[in-house]
Amino acid sequence: MQRMQSTPGTDVTSIGSSALTDVAPVVEVGSLDRDAPVRIVPDVASQRLGTSHGEWAWIEAIYTGALHPLALVVDAALAVVVTRLLSPRPAVVVAAVGWYIVAAFGTRLYRPRTPAECQGVSWYARAVTAPALVTGFLLWALPLTHTEVATSATLAGGIALALILFRAVLWNVLAIARRRGHCLRPALVIGTGRAITRLQKRLVTFPEAGLRFDRGYDPSSTEGGEGLQGGLSHLDLAVREAKHVIVVADDLEREMVRQVVTNCWWERRSVTVVLPISSVFLPYRGCARIGDLAVLPLPYGSLGLAWRVAKRAFDIVLSAILLALLAPLFALVALAIWAEDRGPALYRQARVGREDRSFTIWKFRSMVSGAESGNGELAQQNVTTGLLFKIENDPRITKVGAIIRRFSVDELPQLVNVLRGDMSIVGPRPLAVDPHAFDERAARRHLVRPGLTGLWQVEGANALSYEDMVELDLAYVARWSMSLDLWLLARTLSAVLVRRSAF
pTM for the complete prediction? Predict the structure, then answer.
């Protein structure tokens, strides 16, 4: 993609589908008429910003909780000092600090964050709560360093409070530096010309957000190019080639916003989206601000080796425990299925798994024997879309099958698949279709192991369309984290009890 050098008097809406402006321009507001041309003139003040990021980088790394050795060392040192003051037992001090660091990694306290996401200290107070609670519980529960509930709570709370106060000091230092033009990251603003104008003014007025306007891209402009049609679009190229923080304005169409966010995630990039009612939107958890504009940071997940190992270990331990605990239930269900029609209790079926490989899934049989042979005759009654197949009031379902389906008990034998490594506890739902039936986009679901439960299942399952399922599964793959798995697992029970569809 050829990037055009901005010059005074250039119309940002006429740059065409390569509508990128290069060096720190400022947009001349002029008329607020949406159809009025938005002109670009050099902004000397903006060009001065962000030139001294290196000497402040260590402060920003510690403050934002980035996965940086210095941040780990400083946090560990503070935790040691606090626990040593509160407890005379060296074993407790070592355990408290060690467990806090482990819990912080497990809850993704240390991860990349956008500058707008980290302003003030409230964001850090929320982030540090989970590792502090885990630390307090382990101090109380484990026998090697067993302490009283009050002592455990004091130690965990003391560590969290010290780290929050330390971030408060760092924030004041960092805010002063940003107001003086230091430690500002370049931002690529994606939107229409008018929205680019508004965001550029906000970034200049509110440098505490940690961003400086560097480029603007208008994906709705098609003059001078093929726009977003066919092949790899110019928007794809803009996202892929940009070395900036990406901010999406609030005036783009829904499909275009979805495409930008998806492209950013697949390029391992975080993206910040301006909320449509941002000027009147009150702050809430997960919401950040650029001045008076409410923005929603959307970080990508992690598919690194360490996280994959952690996820697999979690699957093995949990599936083994559940299989042992549910063994009596399995025996009762198997006996009930056999008693109804003297048929087999288990049902096997080929499903598409990770990297498009087929595997055999195990379920309790909920239909009459040989039910699959009737799929062709019932195809006209399919109430779902795409590659899904479901019919209402399916005559093939047995009486016992209706009960175990209602509470998803028929899916529980897949815990064996989880233990074997074919599946995961949480992940996209595996489908019983040919692996080549998926298009290139939907096939991205198979970058991870399929799951017993997942985002699609808890958000509505069969009540949602095939396209909705693909969207949700891709969002899960792109934003996976251990905390997301735990959250979805916690929501599974309520999703099973409160069905959103009649079948």
Answer: 0.66
DSSP-derived letter for residue 212 is E
Query: Contact, 431 vs 390, CB < 8 A?
Result: no
Neighbours of 286 (CB within 10 A): 11
Predicted confidence (pLDDT) at residue 246 exceeds the cutoff of 60: yes
CA proximity to 114, closest of 272, 249, 275: 272
* Token reading at 47: 């060009």
Q: Which residues pair with 11 in a beta bridge?
A: 39
Going by C-alpha positions, the residue among 53, 123, 54, 109 that lies closest to residue 76 is: 109
DSSP 136-195: HHHHHH-STT---HHHHHHHHHHHHHHHHHHHHHHHHHHHHHHHTT-S-EEEEEES-HHH
- Asked whether residue 54 carries a pLDDT value surpassing 60, the answer given is no
Non-local (6+) Cβ contacts of 440 within 8 A are none
The yes-or-no verdict on residue 28 having pLDDT over 60 is: no
DSSP track, 219-279: TT--TTS-TT-SSS-HHHHHHHH--SEEEE-TTS-HHHHHHHHHHHHHTT--EEEE-TTGG
Count of CB atoms situated within 10 Å of the CB of 315: 23
- Return the DSSP state at 301: -
pLDDT tens digit string along 425-465? 999 999 888 888 888 878 888 888 999 998 888 887 777 78
First to last CA, the chain: 49
